[in-house]
Amino acid sequence: MIKKINVLYFSATGTTKKVASKVAEAVRDGLSQGGAGEIPTEFFNVSQPQAREKTYTFGNDELLICAFPVNAGRIPNLLLPFVKGNIRGEGAFAIEVVTFGNRAFDDALIEMKMILEENGFTSEAAGAFSCRHSFSEILGAGRPDEEDLKEAETLGKAAAEKLLKAESDGSDSKAATGTFAVDGNPELPGYYRPQDRYGNPINILKVVPKTDMSKCKRCFECAKVCTMGSISFDDPAVMTGKCIKCNACLRVCPTGAKYFDDPGYILHKTELEEMYAGRRAENRLFY
Ligand SMILES: Cc1cc2nc3c(=O)[nH]c(=O)nc-3n(C[C@H](O)[C@H](O)[C@H](O)COP(=O)(O)O)c2cc1C
User: Fold this and answer.
1) What is the pLDDT of residue 26?
2) Which of 17, 77, 100 to mutate to test the pocket of ligand 1 (most atoms within 8 A of CB)?
3) Residue 129's pLDDT is what?
4) Which of 9, 70, 97, 206 to mutate to test ligand 1, by most ligand atoms within 8 A of the CB atom?
5) Are both 30 and 85 inside the same structural domain?
6) Backbone angles phi, psi at 90, to 5 degrees
7) Based on the domain organization, do 185 and 218 belong to the same domain?
8) I need a surface site. Which of 54, 183, 225, 231 has the fewest CB within 10 A?
Protein backbone atom coordinates (compact mmCIF):
# COMPACT_ATOMS: atom_id res chain seq x y z
CA MET A 1 0.00 0.00 0.00
CA ILE A 2 0.98 3.61 -0.51
CA LYS A 3 2.98 4.90 2.46
CA LYS A 4 3.87 8.31 1.09
CA ILE A 5 2.52 10.80 -1.42
CA ASN A 6 5.08 13.00 -3.19
CA VAL A 7 4.42 16.08 -5.27
CA LEU A 8 7.26 17.11 -7.55
CA TYR A 9 6.45 20.27 -9.46
CA PHE A 10 7.88 23.03 -11.62
CA SER A 11 5.77 26.14 -11.33
CA ALA A 12 6.98 29.59 -12.36
CA THR A 13 3.73 31.49 -11.84
CA GLY A 14 1.98 29.21 -9.36
CA THR A 15 -0.76 27.51 -11.38
CA THR A 16 0.90 24.11 -11.68
CA LYS A 17 1.58 24.01 -7.95
CA LYS A 18 -2.06 24.82 -7.20
CA VAL A 19 -3.44 22.04 -9.41
CA ALA A 20 -0.91 19.44 -8.23
CA SER A 21 -1.59 20.27 -4.57
CA LYS A 22 -5.30 19.73 -5.09
CA VAL A 23 -4.74 16.38 -6.78
CA ALA A 24 -2.49 15.34 -3.88
CA GLU A 25 -5.05 16.37 -1.26
CA ALA A 26 -7.78 14.37 -3.04
CA VAL A 27 -5.64 11.22 -3.34
CA ARG A 28 -4.68 11.44 0.31
CA ASP A 29 -8.33 11.89 1.39
CA GLY A 30 -9.48 9.12 -0.94
CA LEU A 31 -6.88 6.70 0.39
CA SER A 32 -7.59 7.54 4.01
CA GLN A 33 -11.38 7.18 3.53
CA GLY A 34 -10.62 3.78 2.00
CA GLY A 35 -8.91 2.74 5.21
CA ALA A 36 -5.30 3.46 4.35
CA GLY A 37 -4.81 5.72 7.40
CA GLU A 38 -2.97 9.04 7.45
CA ILE A 39 -0.47 9.21 4.61
CA PRO A 40 2.22 11.91 4.69
CA THR A 41 2.71 14.19 1.69
CA GLU A 42 6.06 15.71 0.72
CA PHE A 43 6.51 18.53 -1.81
CA PHE A 44 9.55 18.88 -4.07
CA ASN A 45 9.70 22.25 -5.78
CA VAL A 46 12.04 21.93 -8.76
CA SER A 47 11.40 25.40 -10.15
CA GLN A 48 14.96 26.56 -9.38
CA PRO A 49 18.11 25.08 -10.92
CA GLN A 50 19.73 23.97 -7.63
CA ALA A 51 16.75 21.69 -6.95
CA ARG A 52 17.23 20.11 -10.37
CA GLU A 53 20.79 19.05 -9.59
CA LYS A 54 19.49 16.24 -7.37
CA THR A 55 18.00 12.91 -8.38
CA TYR A 56 14.60 12.05 -6.92
CA THR A 57 13.91 8.35 -6.41
CA PHE A 58 10.59 6.90 -5.29
CA GLY A 59 9.97 3.36 -4.05
CA ASN A 60 7.19 0.87 -4.74
CA ASP A 61 5.14 2.01 -1.74
CA GLU A 62 5.13 5.64 -2.89
CA LEU A 63 2.99 7.74 -5.20
CA LEU A 64 4.41 10.62 -7.19
CA ILE A 65 2.32 13.45 -8.55
CA CYS A 66 4.60 14.91 -11.21
CA ALA A 67 3.48 18.30 -12.48
CA PHE A 68 4.94 20.53 -15.19
CA PRO A 69 3.64 23.35 -17.38
CA VAL A 70 3.28 22.92 -21.14
CA ASN A 71 5.74 24.96 -23.21
CA ALA A 72 5.26 24.92 -26.97
CA GLY A 73 3.04 21.85 -26.71
CA ARG A 74 5.60 19.77 -24.83
CA ILE A 75 7.45 19.47 -21.53
CA PRO A 76 9.74 22.56 -21.46
CA ASN A 77 12.68 21.34 -23.53
CA LEU A 78 15.38 22.76 -21.24
CA LEU A 79 13.88 20.68 -18.43
CA LEU A 80 13.88 17.42 -20.37
CA PRO A 81 17.33 16.21 -19.26
CA PHE A 82 16.19 16.62 -15.66
CA VAL A 83 12.83 14.89 -16.17
CA LYS A 84 14.42 12.03 -18.08
CA GLY A 85 17.51 11.61 -15.93
CA ASN A 86 16.60 12.69 -12.39
CA ILE A 87 13.09 11.41 -11.63
CA ARG A 88 13.32 7.68 -10.94
CA GLY A 89 10.59 5.26 -9.93
CA GLU A 90 11.59 1.98 -8.42
CA GLY A 91 8.13 0.55 -8.99
CA ALA A 92 6.44 3.71 -7.67
CA PHE A 93 3.02 4.86 -8.87
CA ALA A 94 2.56 8.14 -10.71
CA ILE A 95 -0.04 10.70 -11.60
CA GLU A 96 1.10 12.95 -14.44
CA VAL A 97 -0.21 16.50 -14.44
CA VAL A 98 0.41 19.21 -17.02
CA THR A 99 -0.96 22.73 -17.07
CA PHE A 100 -1.43 24.81 -20.20
CA GLY A 101 -2.51 28.35 -20.97
CA ASN A 102 -5.88 28.00 -22.72
CA ARG A 103 -4.37 27.08 -26.10
CA ALA A 104 -3.56 23.33 -26.07
CA PHE A 105 -1.42 20.73 -24.30
CA ASP A 106 -0.60 18.94 -27.57
CA ASP A 107 1.92 16.15 -26.77
CA ALA A 108 3.09 17.27 -23.32
CA LEU A 109 1.04 14.81 -21.28
CA ILE A 110 1.89 11.76 -23.36
CA GLU A 111 5.54 12.82 -23.29
CA MET A 112 5.53 12.98 -19.50
CA LYS A 113 3.71 9.67 -19.16
CA MET A 114 6.10 7.91 -21.52
CA ILE A 115 9.16 9.29 -19.71
CA LEU A 116 7.91 8.31 -16.26
CA GLU A 117 6.94 4.82 -17.39
CA GLU A 118 10.37 4.45 -18.97
CA ASN A 119 11.85 5.59 -15.64
CA GLY A 120 10.14 2.83 -13.67
CA PHE A 121 6.78 4.30 -12.66
CA THR A 122 3.32 2.76 -13.06
CA SER A 123 0.90 5.46 -14.21
CA GLU A 124 -2.38 5.58 -12.31
CA ALA A 125 -3.98 8.67 -13.77
CA ALA A 126 -3.07 11.78 -15.73
CA GLY A 127 -4.59 15.17 -16.34
CA ALA A 128 -4.12 18.30 -18.43
CA PHE A 129 -5.48 21.46 -16.85
CA SER A 130 -6.09 24.77 -18.52
CA CYS A 131 -4.73 27.65 -16.46
CA ARG A 132 -3.82 31.29 -16.89
CA HIS A 133 -1.24 31.70 -19.64
CA SER A 134 2.08 32.89 -18.20
CA PHE A 135 2.33 35.59 -20.88
CA SER A 136 -1.05 37.15 -20.31
CA GLU A 137 -3.46 38.71 -17.82
CA ILE A 138 -6.53 37.74 -19.83
CA LEU A 139 -5.75 34.36 -21.39
CA GLY A 140 -7.26 31.81 -19.00
CA ALA A 141 -7.62 34.58 -16.40
CA GLY A 142 -8.41 33.36 -12.90
CA ARG A 143 -7.70 29.72 -13.70
CA PRO A 144 -7.37 27.29 -12.08
CA ASP A 145 -10.73 28.31 -10.58
CA GLU A 146 -13.13 26.38 -8.38
CA GLU A 147 -14.41 24.32 -11.29
CA ASP A 148 -10.86 23.37 -12.32
CA LEU A 149 -9.95 22.41 -8.78
CA LYS A 150 -13.05 20.20 -8.59
CA GLU A 151 -11.72 18.36 -11.63
CA ALA A 152 -8.31 18.08 -10.01
CA GLU A 153 -10.12 16.52 -7.06
CA THR A 154 -11.92 14.08 -9.38
CA LEU A 155 -8.58 12.99 -10.79
CA GLY A 156 -7.08 12.45 -7.34
CA LYS A 157 -10.12 10.49 -6.16
CA ALA A 158 -10.08 8.27 -9.25
CA ALA A 159 -6.40 7.49 -8.68
CA ALA A 160 -7.09 6.67 -5.02
CA GLU A 161 -9.88 4.28 -6.04
CA LYS A 162 -7.59 2.49 -8.46
CA LEU A 163 -4.90 2.14 -5.82
CA LEU A 164 -7.37 0.84 -3.24
CA LYS A 165 -8.78 -1.65 -5.73
CA ALA A 166 -5.31 -2.92 -6.55
CA GLU A 167 -4.69 -3.37 -2.84
CA SER A 168 -7.96 -5.21 -2.20
CA ASP A 169 -7.52 -7.44 -5.24
CA GLY A 170 -4.14 -8.32 -3.81
CA SER A 171 -2.97 -8.72 -7.36
CA ASP A 172 0.15 -7.51 -9.05
CA SER A 173 -0.14 -3.73 -9.01
CA LYS A 174 0.59 -3.25 -12.67
CA ALA A 175 -2.03 -5.76 -13.79
CA ALA A 176 -4.60 -4.50 -11.28
CA THR A 177 -4.31 -0.83 -12.06
CA GLY A 178 -4.27 -1.51 -15.75
CA THR A 179 -3.07 0.72 -18.50
CA PHE A 180 -4.81 3.75 -19.91
CA ALA A 181 -4.20 6.02 -22.85
CA VAL A 182 -3.83 9.79 -22.89
CA ASP A 183 -4.24 12.23 -25.76
CA GLY A 184 -1.17 13.10 -27.78
CA ASN A 185 1.07 11.71 -30.48
CA PRO A 186 3.56 9.19 -29.03
CA GLU A 187 5.90 9.95 -31.93
CA LEU A 188 6.36 13.47 -30.44
CA PRO A 189 6.62 15.03 -33.90
CA GLY A 190 7.85 18.44 -32.78
CA TYR A 191 7.30 21.61 -30.80
CA TYR A 192 4.47 24.07 -31.39
CA ARG A 193 5.89 27.03 -33.28
CA PRO A 194 4.48 30.42 -32.40
CA GLN A 195 2.74 31.95 -35.38
CA ASP A 196 0.29 34.70 -36.17
CA ARG A 197 -3.29 34.02 -37.25
CA TYR A 198 -2.18 33.80 -40.89
CA GLY A 199 0.36 31.08 -40.10
CA ASN A 200 3.43 33.33 -40.32
CA PRO A 201 6.12 32.14 -37.88
CA ILE A 202 7.12 34.29 -34.89
CA ASN A 203 10.51 33.53 -33.37
CA ILE A 204 10.77 34.34 -29.67
CA LEU A 205 13.57 31.93 -28.76
CA LYS A 206 16.19 34.57 -28.02
CA VAL A 207 13.84 37.01 -26.28
CA VAL A 208 14.77 38.04 -22.71
CA PRO A 209 13.02 40.38 -20.25
CA LYS A 210 14.21 43.94 -19.84
CA THR A 211 14.54 45.92 -16.62
CA ASP A 212 13.47 49.51 -16.05
CA MET A 213 16.24 50.60 -13.66
CA SER A 214 14.31 53.76 -12.71
CA LYS A 215 11.77 51.42 -11.06
CA CYS A 216 14.12 48.67 -9.85
CA LYS A 217 14.78 48.67 -6.08
CA ARG A 218 17.49 45.99 -6.33
CA CYS A 219 15.61 43.57 -4.06
CA PHE A 220 16.75 40.69 -6.31
CA GLU A 221 13.44 38.86 -5.94
CA CYS A 222 13.61 38.35 -9.72
CA ALA A 223 17.00 36.68 -9.49
CA LYS A 224 15.78 34.45 -6.66
CA VAL A 225 12.79 33.15 -8.64
CA CYS A 226 14.40 32.90 -12.09
CA THR A 227 13.72 29.30 -13.09
CA MET A 228 16.90 29.15 -15.14
CA GLY A 229 19.09 30.97 -12.57
CA SER A 230 19.87 33.48 -15.32
CA ILE A 231 19.39 36.86 -13.63
CA SER A 232 22.62 38.30 -12.22
CA PHE A 233 22.79 38.85 -8.45
CA ASP A 234 25.18 41.76 -9.15
CA ASP A 235 22.96 43.56 -11.62
CA PRO A 236 19.32 42.47 -12.06
CA ALA A 237 19.28 43.96 -15.56
CA VAL A 238 21.93 41.47 -16.71
CA MET A 239 21.00 38.02 -18.02
CA THR A 240 23.75 35.48 -17.47
CA GLY A 241 22.04 32.53 -19.15
CA LYS A 242 18.98 31.28 -20.98
CA CYS A 243 15.42 32.56 -20.57
CA ILE A 244 12.35 30.37 -21.09
CA LYS A 245 9.93 33.30 -20.84
CA CYS A 246 8.29 31.68 -17.79
CA ASN A 247 7.42 35.17 -16.50
CA ALA A 248 8.34 34.40 -12.87
CA CYS A 249 10.46 37.57 -12.69
CA LEU A 250 7.70 39.81 -14.07
CA ARG A 251 5.14 38.45 -11.62
CA VAL A 252 7.37 38.67 -8.53
CA CYS A 253 8.77 42.17 -9.15
CA PRO A 254 7.15 44.47 -6.58
CA THR A 255 7.65 47.61 -8.69
CA GLY A 256 6.83 46.32 -12.16
CA ALA A 257 10.38 46.94 -13.36
CA LYS A 258 10.62 43.77 -15.49
CA TYR A 259 8.99 43.75 -18.90
CA PHE A 260 9.12 42.28 -22.39
CA ASP A 261 9.09 44.69 -25.31
CA ASP A 262 10.31 42.45 -28.12
CA PRO A 263 7.92 43.02 -31.05
CA GLY A 264 7.74 39.26 -31.81
CA TYR A 265 6.86 38.45 -28.19
CA ILE A 266 4.21 41.19 -28.09
CA LEU A 267 2.76 39.97 -31.40
CA HIS A 268 2.67 36.35 -30.20
CA LYS A 269 0.99 37.35 -26.95
CA THR A 270 -1.57 39.51 -28.76
CA GLU A 271 -2.32 36.81 -31.31
CA LEU A 272 -2.78 34.19 -28.58
CA GLU A 273 -5.10 36.54 -26.71
CA GLU A 274 -7.13 37.37 -29.81
CA MET A 275 -7.39 33.74 -30.89
CA TYR A 276 -7.95 32.02 -27.55
CA ALA A 277 -8.97 34.42 -24.77
CA GLY A 278 -12.63 34.27 -25.71
CA ARG A 279 -13.03 30.60 -24.89
CA ARG A 280 -12.63 28.26 -21.96
CA ALA A 281 -10.35 25.38 -22.89
CA GLU A 282 -11.40 22.12 -21.24
CA ASN A 283 -9.38 20.12 -18.79
CA ARG A 284 -8.83 16.50 -19.72
CA LEU A 285 -8.65 13.65 -17.22
CA PHE A 286 -7.39 10.16 -18.04
CA TYR A 287 -7.39 7.06 -15.82
C1 LIG B 1 7.49 29.53 -23.13
C2 LIG B 1 6.07 29.16 -22.85
C3 LIG B 1 5.39 28.37 -23.75
C4 LIG B 1 4.06 28.01 -23.51
N5 LIG B 1 3.44 27.20 -24.41
C6 LIG B 1 2.13 26.89 -24.23
C7 LIG B 1 1.42 26.06 -25.16
O8 LIG B 1 2.00 25.50 -26.10
N9 LIG B 1 0.09 25.87 -24.98
C10 LIG B 1 -0.59 26.46 -23.95
O11 LIG B 1 -1.82 26.33 -23.89
N12 LIG B 1 0.07 27.17 -23.00
C13 LIG B 1 1.40 27.40 -23.12
N14 LIG B 1 2.07 28.14 -22.16
C15 LIG B 1 1.37 28.56 -20.94
C16 LIG B 1 1.71 27.73 -19.71
O17 LIG B 1 1.71 26.36 -20.00
C18 LIG B 1 0.68 27.96 -18.59
O19 LIG B 1 0.53 29.31 -18.37
C20 LIG B 1 1.03 27.23 -17.29
O21 LIG B 1 -0.16 27.12 -16.54
C22 LIG B 1 2.08 27.92 -16.48
O23 LIG B 1 2.34 27.21 -15.29
P24 LIG B 1 2.91 27.90 -13.95
O25 LIG B 1 1.91 28.95 -13.53
O26 LIG B 1 2.97 26.79 -12.96
O27 LIG B 1 4.22 28.49 -14.28
C28 LIG B 1 3.39 28.47 -22.36
C29 LIG B 1 4.10 29.26 -21.45
C30 LIG B 1 5.42 29.59 -21.67
C31 LIG B 1 6.14 30.40 -20.65
Assistant:
1) 98
2) 100
3) 98
4) 70
5) yes
6) -90, 70
7) no
8) 54
**Which DSSP string do the residues of 32-91 spell out, in sequence order?**
IIIII----EEEEE--SGGGGSS-EEE-TTEEEEEEEE-BTTBS-GGGHHHHHHHEEESS
Beta strands 210-211 and 258-259 are antiparallel
Question: Measuring from atom 4 of ligand 1, which residue has the nearest CA?
Answer: 71
**Ligand 1 atom with the shortest distance to the CA of 67:** 26
pTM (2 d.p.): 0.96
| Count of domains observed in the chain | 2
The distance in angstroms from the start CA to the end CA of the chain is: 19
Assigned domain for 269 exists: no
Percentage of the chain exceeding pLDDT 90: 91
Q: Whose CA is nearest to atom 2 of ligand 1?
A: 71
**Do 186 and 232 fall within a single domain?**
no
Query: What span, in angstroms and rounded, lies between the C-alpha atoms of 202 and 212?
Result: 25
Confidence band, pLDDT 50/70/90 cuts, at residue 171: low
Query: Rounded to the nearest whole angstrom, what is the distance from the C-alpha of residue 131 to the centroid of ligand 1?
Result: 8
- Residue 184 and residue 109 in contact, taking contact as beta carbons nearer than 8 Å: yes
Q: Ligand 1: residues within 6 Å at CB?
A: 11-16, 69-73, 99-104, 131-134, 192, 244-246
* Nearest-5° Cα angle at 209, 206 to 214: 145
Q: What's the whole-number mean pLDDT along residues 248-263? A: 97
